[in-house]
TrEMBL record:
Upper taxonomic lineage: Bacteria, Bacillati, Bacillota, Bacilli, Bacillales
Active site: residue positions: H251, E306
Keyword Transferase: yes
Known catalytic reactions: oxaloacetate + acetyl-CoA + H2O = citrate + CoA + H(+)
Protein name: Citrate synthase
A GO cellular component annotation in the UniProt record: cytosol
Amino acid sequence: MIYKGLKGVTCTETTLSMIDGERGKLIYAGYDARDLSMNHSFEEVAYLLWYGTLPNESELQWIEEKFKTHRNLPHYMKNIIENLPKELGILDVLRTSISSVHLNSPEIPTVEDAIRLTAIIPAIIAYRLHSLGTKKFPTIRQDLNHVAYYYYMATGIDPKPELTHALETYMILTMEHGLNASTFSARVTASSESDLASSMTSAIGTMKGPLHGGAPTGVIELLNDASHSNNIKSMIREKMERGEKLMGFGHRVYKTLDPRAEALKEILQQNPKADQWFSLALELEDIAIQTLEELKPGRNLYTNVEYYAAAVMKALNIDSSLFTATFTASRIVGWSAHVMEQRSNNTIFRPNAEYIGPVPTTF
Ligand code: ACO
């Protein structure tokens, strides 16, 4: 029996997250991810995934300080970023820069190194924008928590709390999601007892693909097409008849509404800046789900998290070229937690492939 794409195959145990795809529930280490995203900070939820419990007051203070300690870009990394071809996208830059981080503990993955890799991402992005001449490199600030700091470094905009709340919700909701393609990549690399930076590099490479982390950019294209169309339904039909997938719809695990998409939709409903794109997204969602049901009956295709992620980022003036990078900036927490879990009880991943090519006549 061949399980293409390993569909339906369980190959490890985890205490990090549970997805109930039929009921649309997502649990992080015993807590409802939606509640965590509404009531806790990025650092608190990262602590939960890395240590298995929410932090007390002094632990929270510790992790917030650690995030701040690791914000600076080493000189050699600035050189790398400056010397990369201008044509490379931001995910290529993240992949290369993260692969060059000098870890404290290359043999054993640690929380300290996971923080180091997570905390450096905003400066990598800002330095790349600076080296392309798009934005001046901002002064590294120590007064902001991670998500506000990320927003400030990625946009140069002063991060008012009413702006960053929606982003923090998104970044918590996308921190962890079971054995998705990029997390699986991270775990496969970790299973060979390679180091944490190498696992993160594998994961970023997988994240880049349009069927995974690249989807929000496709969602913006879809919304743009819809905004120029006077018949959204036939536009969607034509796309599907050409065999195109509608970006932001469908999910390997959720066969009902993606709870993360629902939570983001709720946040957008409260955000006055979300008006124009959000109403278009709502209209498009209804028509698309109806058309998907007509053309792909019984496949249960609904919006996934990336659909409303695109609307959140659009409302916050985050450039569409940074959507997948923003997803990476949050998912790196889940990746590193999985690497530590993999290494704590390791078996190398080595599935089989059935050979269907020719055999020598003498065989
Ligand atoms: N648009 C049109 N048809 C779709 C879509 C879509 N977005 N998604 C699935 N389908 C169809 C498929 O064509 C297939 O039809 P068939 O039975 O006639 O062959 C059927 O629904 C099942 O789809 P699969 O591709 O087999 O489902 P799978 O679980 O392998 O893929 C995936 C899930 C990759 C997310 C897919 O739904 C997709 O490509 N969606 C668009 C890209 C996207 O939004 N990705 C972000 C996912 S969320 C994340 O990564 C955080």
